[in-house]
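Customer escalation, tier 2.

The customer says the design service returned an amino acid string that "doesn't look like it belongs to this structure." They asked us to rerun it and document both sides in this ticket. The original structure tokens are below, unchanged.
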């Protein structure tokens, strides 16, 4: 089943539009497969402390409270000190792949954990994906009701 992950801006846009393929969490997840990347309603006021962030998101519209991308969670592991540049020490690293930014943000209300998006949100997201991208991200059963 498709889940959604709420990520604060500008981190969400770094996933959608840059090369951020690790999401840092203090908790692990057994979920593997498609996930909607949802930007939180409030931005992370401290993100500018991460030096590359300013250059990466300059000029991007930082949509809030909306699904802005789809991806696939392919792994989740504790910090091993040898992960990607976006990995934070002491966190679980959720490895993302097949990230596709949506042409239009889809308004939605998020949650703290992985959450089940409403059918209307899934349908609106699915309409923005070409068939090949949708097939690569999820099985037909995951998108059931969103066609």
């Amino acid at each position: 089943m498709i889940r959604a992950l709420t990520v604060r801006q500008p981190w969400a846009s770094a996933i959608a539009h840059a090369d951020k393929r690790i999401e840092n969490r203090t908790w692990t997840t057994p979920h593997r497969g498609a996930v909607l990347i949802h930007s939180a309603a409030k931005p992370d006021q401290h993100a500018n402390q991460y030096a590359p962030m300013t250059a990466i998101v300059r000029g991007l519209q930082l949509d809030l409270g909306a699904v802005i991308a789809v991806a696939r969670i392919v792994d989740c592991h504790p910090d091993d000190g040898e992960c990607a540049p976006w990995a934070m020490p002491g966190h679980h690293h959720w490895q993302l792949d097949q990230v596709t930014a949506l042409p239009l943000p889809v308004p939605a209300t998020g949650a703290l954990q992985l959450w089940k998006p409403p059918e209307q949100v899934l349908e609106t997201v699915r309409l923005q994906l070409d068939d090949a991208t949708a097939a690569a991200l999820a099985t037909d059963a995951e998108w059931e009701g969103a066609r």
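Tier 2 assessment: The sequence is consistent with the input. The first helix runs from residue 11 to 17. The two ends are 15 Å apart (CA to CA). Sent an explanation to the customer and offered a walkthrough call.
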